[in-house]
Specification:
The complex is a heterodimer of chains A (109) and B (112). Helices cover 0% and strands 59% of the residues of chain A. Chain A has 109 residues and is mainly beta. In chain A, strands 2, 4, 5, 9, 10 and 11 form a 6-stranded mixed sheet that branches. In chain A, strands 1-3-8-7-6 form a 5-stranded antiparallel sheet, with no helix packed on it. Chain A is built from no helices and 11 strands. Chain B has 112 residues and is an all-beta fold. In chain B, the strands form 2 sheets. In chain B, strands 2, 4, 5, 6, 9, 10 and 11 form a 7-stranded mixed sheet that branches. Chain B has strands spanning 4-7, 10-13, 19-25, 31-37, 44-51, 54-57, 64-70, 73-78, 87-94, 102-103, 107-111. In chain B, a hairpin with a 2-residue loop joins β7 and β8. Classes of the chains: A mainly beta (109), B mainly beta (112). At the A-B interface, β4, β5, β9 and β10 of A face β5, β9 and β10 of B.
Chain lengths: 109, 112
């Protein structure tokens, strides 16, 4: 059983398109995290949020606690956005993180 | 970028040999983690540390041990490597338990 599910698993977009990646989780959380992993493996934290919405440049992350759902949006996508995007949740009790298996995004020029 | 390094970055070893991976941080963060990443699985927690000499098991701890004798170093040891431990290993750090984690560059381990 996966505590964190992401969709889609793979996504191909044309440069300039608006992109949405979804994350659903089944446990009570203290926060939800969006991570980016580029080819070559490095993992970078994009957002940590526990309610509402956060924006950084062309990236927007939203969370609906009642529905246990989060979305990551990329506006005006660019080939450099090509990466794997990973959703993770941290639990309020104990030191537990659960990770989704990632969404592989390819943006074509 | 958070100051986290991992060594070695790549290692090929044989079944049954001991292997130690090192994670070093310069951020003075309290929490340190070891994860493995495999195709079809998300990152999975192996062990974590909440202070010097304070460690606990994660989801997939069998076959692994850890040690933290200094704030800046967290060692992961495979006492007798098996082919199922072929994976990419990531170290991460955080200031508080639910804070953003900062990841090291990863170590690709192949056990033949």
């Amino acid at each position: 059983k996966n505590e964190v599910e992401q969709s889609p698993q793979n996504l191909t977009a044309q440069e300039g398109e608006f992109i949405t990646i979804n994350c659903s989780y089944s446990v009570g959380i203290s926060a939800l995290h969006w991570l980016q992993q580029h080819p070559g493996g490095g993992i970078v934290s994009l957002f940590m949020l526990s309610s509402g919405k956060k924006k950084h440049g062309r990236l927007i992350a939203t969370i609906n606690i009642q529905e246990k759902h989060s979305s990551l949006h990329i506006t005006a996508s660019h080939p450099r956005d090509s990466a794997v995007y990973i959703c993770a949740v941290s639990l309020p009790t104990g030191n537990q993180f659960y990770f989704g298996t990632g969404t592989s995004l390819t943006v074509i020029p | 970028d958070a100051g986290i390094t991992q060594s070695p970055r790549h290692k090929v070893t044989e079944t049954g040999t001991p292997v130690t991976l090192r994670c070093h941080q310069t951020e003075n963060h309290r929490y340190m983690y070891w994860y493995r990443q495999d195709p079809g699985h998300g990152l999975r927690l192996i062990h974590y540390s909440y202070g010097v000499k304070d460690t606990d098991k994660g989801e997939v701890s069998d076959g692994y041990s850890v040690s933290r004798s200094k704030t800046e170093d967290f060692l992961l040891t495979l006492e007798s490597a098996t082919s199922s431990q072929t994976s990419v290993y990531f170290c991460a750090i955080s200031e508080q338990v639910t804070d953003t984690q900062y990841f090291g560059p990863g170590t690709r381990l192949t056990v033949l």
